Amino acid sequence: MFDNLTGKQGLVFGLITGVGLSAIIGFAIVAPKLLRNNYAENTLAQNYQLTQPIDQPAQAIAEAPTPTNIPKSDKPKVELFVMSNCPYGLQMEKALIPAYDLLKNKADIEVKFVSYAMHGKPEVDENTRQYCAQQQDKDKYFSYLNCYATTEDSASCIKQSGLNESKINSCIEKTDKQFAITNKYNDRASWLSGQYPIYPIHAELNDKYGVQGSPTLVINGVQVDASRTPNALKAIICSAFNNPPAECGQTLASASPQPGFGAGQTQTATAGGCGG
């Protein structure tokens, strides 16, 4: 067959054959790596029942409607679970702060922590610092949080908020021993899928509510989805009152804070998270 090919035809045939052979060799090299990566991701998801990719990127979404399945109470209990350095947890916290300032005397609003950390030892330490700040004085804690979420400067924000640094440090030491936080961090065998240190302070609540990632909003014991704007969070909290107070008639900002540290805003509602 090849004896009948002209020189030009032979050249074309050789090129086509070479490309095809290169493609086969390339697939043989890359395919096992792709399969291994896919297996690792699926294993991590199965171990912690992750339903979304780790560090899920932000996506534009329509503003979520106010849920109708939230149990009502005279004083709603609002629990926001975050990782302190998660960009999307910070975004939700910045949206929550104005709603807290408006409703702090009417609802029980707290920040709590996901039971594992994805952003290293600094996040583990910041979680404990914020836990202690909130134990000391909730108003000053939210002032600290407003500063920290903008500047990422914990030392300056402690002073600016009026928190007692000595008491914070004593609380950190006591809390670390009580929950064996540093011991768990140093015990890599206990890390989630060998990658993420366990953060145990609110582990029982994480299990109770099915918290898997940051941010997770729980109101009166029920996980709820909410748009990350001050006004949307105000509305969803107000929907949980038996008799909404007059403050619920006020309108807060409708822009969503930017993910991560900083004071910027975005006009587009976003969804993203750290973890499942």
From TrEMBL:
Gene Ontology molecular function terms on file: oxidoreductase activity, acting on a sulfur group of donors, disulfide as acceptor
TM helices/strands, residue ranges: 12-31
Subcellular localization: Secreted
SUPFAM superfamilies to which the protein is assigned, alphabetical: Thioredoxin-like
Taxonomic superkingdom: Bacteria
Gene source species: Candidatus Magasanikbacteria bacterium RIFOXYD1_FULL_40_23
Database matches in InterPro entries: Interferon-induced_GILT, Thioredoxin-like_sf
Signal peptide: none
Keywords per UniProt: Glycoprotein, Membrane, Secreted, Signal, Transmembrane, Transmembrane helix
Protein's UniProt name: Thioredoxin-like fold domain-containing protein
Keyword Iron carried by entry: no
Principal subcellular localization: secreted
Gene Ontology CC, one term: extracellular region
